[in-house]
Amino acid sequence: MKNWKHLLLLLALFAFSATATSCSDKDDPVNPEQTVEPDQPDKPDQPDQPDEPDQPDQPDQPVESELPKLGEVYSLVEFMGVDKNDASIGYVAIYVSSTTLDVDQNDNFIGTGAYIGVMINVEMPASGALEGIPAGTYPVNKTQSPVIGTVASSVYYAVKDSKELVSQDVFADGSFTIQSLGGEQYKLVYDFTTKGGYAVKDECTTTLTIGSEDEDYSTLTGDVTVGTLTSAIAGYSGPNSSPSVSDYYTVILSDDAPDTSGENVILSFNVTPNAKGGVPAGTYTLVDPYYTEGFDFSTVEPFTATAGFFPSEENIDGTWYFNFSESNPAQARLCSGDIEVSTDGTNYTFAGKLYDYYGHAVTFSYTGAAQYVDLTQQQTNSLQPLKKHAAKQCLRRSAADRFPARCRF
Q1: Could you give the count of Cα atoms lying within 13 Å of 56 in the half-sphere of its Cβ?
Q2: How far apart are CA 59 and CA 34, in angstroms?
Q3: What is the DSSP letter of 272?
Q4: Core vs surface per residue 329-361: b (16+ CB within 10 A) or e
Q5: Sign of the four-CA dihedral 237, 238, 244, 249
Q6: pLDDT confidence of residue 384
Q7: Domain residue spans of the chain
Q8: What local confidence, expressed as pLDDT, does residue 42 receive?
Q9: Helices (DSSP H) in 144-224: which residue ranges?
Q10: pLDDT score of 395
Q11: Is the alpha carbon torsion for 24, 30, 36, 40 positive or negative?
């Protein structure tokens, strides 16, 4: 009986010990009816996902306000012929390009500026010869057939620092206005929306001539006032031709003795016959052998001056401006304006404001003696070396060279 009590005491102590151990493992008592989930094995580490590749930067769409304007322009007019189905409808292409733009040997733009080409449909006269640019407002033609008085085709470029911000865009809506300012001077007004979404509002004033290569032979981008001229030489060449109603003088004004290092103004004068000894005083108006209809040296009148021209590949003649300095080289074929000649004893004053094809003014004045040379008595013309040097240095280009073939119709 005593052993039995001992056995009960041992069982009680065992049960107490087991309960105390379980409660020490967890603050809350374990529910004996709850199933304990076995520990899950750790999941293996997932490999790092590769980073998304960087997307290439999309080129920024240029802001309209940042697009260069035309400013001063070069211009080119091409008569493209008549419509194959209706000879009363003609095509005229008018291109303008900022004078701050040029073109390299690969037809890529250099500089900053705008370039616009517009082809218009015009009514052809019965003679079949278009003699001028018809003024008016030309809306964009949205039909598939040519319509007189509309824009048939267009092209627009905007270039900044030799980079084309807008390239080969075309006009989707709007109008092109041509205003005549008299003679061959016109104001061109552009008011378009392009297919690329740009609103193009621009204008310029320029010379437009149909049927001409518009040979400019000028590198001027603005007006020029010639510096101090200190020497003059006047060469008498005799009659302009045989027969002739005028004789011919060449006068070279220089900032030193006539040479190939500084500024030179080369003038031509058609004077009264047998005017040996010096250029007669008077006002001489330039006439242009390239663009004066029916120009003939045998009939050119006295008191005119001949615009610059090339009598041969190796020589220049007529009226020119050259700056042969290395720091600021420049040239201009001068083709309009007046020259005033006056005398005071043995001294001359030669003064004028002459213009290149694009209207850039060259203003000059010289007062002093003029060395007289009778070129009819010389076996070798003493003025030819300077003229031939000028011809070699002259950038002989036409306006068409400034308008890349890839940007024309």
Answers
A1: 2
A2: 66
A3: -
A4: ebbbbbbbbebebeeeeeebebebbbbbbbebb
A5: positive
A6: 73
A7: 67-215+401-407, 224-393
A8: 56
A9: none
A10: 53
A11: negative
Nearest to 137 by CA among 95, 103, 188: 188
Phi and psi of 200, rounded to 5°?
Answer: -105, 110
Three-class SS state of 67? coil
**What is the rounded (10 degree) CA torsion for 127, 133, 135, 138?**
100
Contact 324, 342 (CB under 8 A): no
Give the pair of three-digit tokens for residue 408: 């024309």
Tell me the mean pLDDT per 10 residues along the chain, length 409.
47 46 42 48 50 46 79 87 86 92 86 96 80 90 93 96 94 96 91 93 88 62 91 93 91 80 92 94 91 79 92 82 85 93 96 88 96 84 73 58 81
Q: Which one, of 72, 190, 91, 102, lies nearest residue 404 by Cα?
A: 102
Q: Is 13 helix (H, G, I), strand (E, B) or coil?
A: helix
CA gap 383, 368 in Å, rounded: 19
State the maximum Cα–Cα separation within the chain, in Å, rounded to a whole number.
173
Q: Where are the beta strands (DSSP E) in 100-257?
A: 101-103, 109-111, 113-123, 136-139, 151-160, 163-169, 171-182, 185-194, 199-207, 224-225, 231-239, 247-254
